[in-house]
Amino acid sequence: MPRKSENPPPPDAPILITMGEPAGIGPEVAVAAWHALDGRIGKHVLKLVGDASVLRALGDIPQTALIDSHALGAPLRLGHADPANTHAVVDAIDTAVAMAMQGAASAVVTAPIHKASLLQGGFEFAGHTEYLAKITESDRAVMMLAGGGLRVVPLTIHIAISEVPTRITEVAIVETGEIILRALKEDFGIAKPRLAVSGLNPHAGEDGEIGREERDIIRPACEALRVEGTVLGPLPADTMFHEEARARYDAALCMYHDQALIPLKTLAFWDGVNITLGLPIVRTSPDHGTALDIAGKGKADPRSMIAAIKMASGIADARFG
Question: How far does CA 252 lie from the centroid of its chain?
Answer without folding.
Answer: 15
